[in-house]
Q: What sequence folds into this?
């Protein structure tokens, strides 16, 4: 089967030979490869960050949070029963929250948030019980569960005692509140610094005593069957509870976190696009070199009757082939790096290079997730820009005067 003349001519110019043009072509393809690979790797890591943050947040925090208008909740158990009776609602639990001061062994101090919950309700509205690595998830009486980073910071282990100082000592300066002594019943590891270092869970009775409440709760934690149908479930909760309650979704509670991740991903894409565009211009340079080197040959083709459109198509095909090969190899190289990302991070640690410290990034692993849609958009973007970058040298070759071109012979 005979190839069309433009494709035949493009393949002829791409044929490996011991010449400078072949080296330039290889360099152009490698440039596109690196640009595409960097885009795939960085966007996949950013997508992984977004998904892992969402997973960690939904493992610790509820899908919906219910507040009373104008103060604390007074009929919290009745509200929980009404919510749990709704279709798609897995559990609801009252919560008392307060910022406290903790004193561990050897006088070490921390200032976490205390969450006071009913143990049975806590098991339904959070996955901390599943993430408890040491001891047991027990909140009855004067027991507490804390994160692995906080336990390390305070030098605590299961069975140790910790003193919890009430914030009322600061709010009501004319009164003195003695600290609560709690026993560490369990240590959890959520894999996220904010939760492993910044929270301590205890019984709702202890939390109420710390904030001076006799009854009630600050909020309700609600878990549903599908966290991504939060708008639908939030509307059901509002209808069931009435206008005296405010219902907020997990996305409302952490909107700044997800907005920051979205903007950071967009900015990374915009910045890295310039690297890819520079690589694409290498294709333009290759085509310009070929038009100069093949001036007489182009003039001969035109003298033999080949149209300007055919000559132009040949050079566009030349640019397309380089970009298609570079894009395909770039996507493959990017995916190969991503699949070995954990090994690369461990290998860097051998040379004392900590590529992903939990203290900075807040996560215990370098996440990544490849979206087929994003990969397709990257490939489409590169091919479109390659086409545009091929037009200038292709147009120059097509407009070449055969008489002037043959003078170079």
A:
């Amino acid at each position: 089967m005979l190839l069309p003349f433009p494709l035949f001519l493009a393949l002829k110019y791409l044929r490996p030979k011991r010449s400078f043009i072949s080296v330039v072509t290889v360099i152009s393809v490698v440039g596109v490869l690196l640009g595409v690979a960097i885009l795939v790797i960085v966007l996949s890591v950013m997508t992984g960050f977004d998904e892992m943050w969402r997973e960690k947040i939904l493992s610790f925090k509820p899908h919906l949070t219910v507040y009373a208008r104008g103060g604390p909740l007074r009929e919290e158990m009745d509200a929980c029963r009404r919510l749990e009776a709704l279709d798609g609602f897995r559990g609801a639990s009252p919560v008392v929250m307060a910022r406290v001061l903790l004193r561990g062994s050897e006088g070490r101090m921390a200032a976490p948030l205390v969450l006071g919950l009913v143990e049975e309700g806590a098991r339904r509205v959070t996955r901390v019980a599943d993430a408890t690595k040491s001891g047991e998830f027990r909140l009855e009486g004067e027991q507490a569960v804390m994160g692995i980073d906080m336990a390390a910071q305070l030098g605590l282990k299961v069975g140790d005692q910790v003193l919890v100082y009430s914030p009322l000592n600061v709010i009501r300066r004319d009164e003195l509140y003695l600290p609560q002594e709690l026993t560490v019943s369990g240590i959890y590891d959520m894999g996220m610094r904010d939760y492993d270092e910044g929270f301590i869970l205890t019984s709702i009775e202890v939390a109420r005593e710390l904030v001076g409440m006799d009854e009630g709760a600050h909020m309700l934690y609600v878990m549903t069957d599908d966290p991504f149908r939060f708008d639908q479930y939030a509307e059901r909760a509002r209808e069931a509870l009435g206008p005296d309650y405010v219902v907020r979704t997990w996305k409302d509670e952490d909107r700044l976190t997800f907005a920051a991740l979205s903007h950071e991903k967009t900015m990374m894409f915009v910045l890295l696009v310039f690297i890819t565009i520079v690589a694409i211009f290498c294709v333009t340079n290759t085509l310009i070199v070929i038009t100069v080197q093949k001036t007489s040959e182009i003039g001969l083709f035109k003298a033999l009757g080949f149209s300007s459109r055919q000559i132009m198509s040949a050079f566009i095909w030349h640019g397309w082939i380089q970009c298609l090969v570079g894009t395909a190899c770039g996507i493959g190289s990017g995916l190969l790096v991503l699949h070995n990302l954990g090994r690369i991070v461990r290998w860097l640690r051998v040379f004392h290079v900590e590529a992903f410290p939990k203290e900075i990034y807040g996560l215990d692993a370098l996440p990544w997730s490849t979206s087929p849609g994003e990969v397709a958009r990257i490939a489409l973007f590169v091919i479109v820009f390659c086409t545009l970058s091929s037009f200038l040298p292709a147009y120059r070759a097509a407009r070449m005067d055969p008489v002037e071109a043959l003078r170079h012979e």
Summary: The first helix runs from residue 5 to 14.
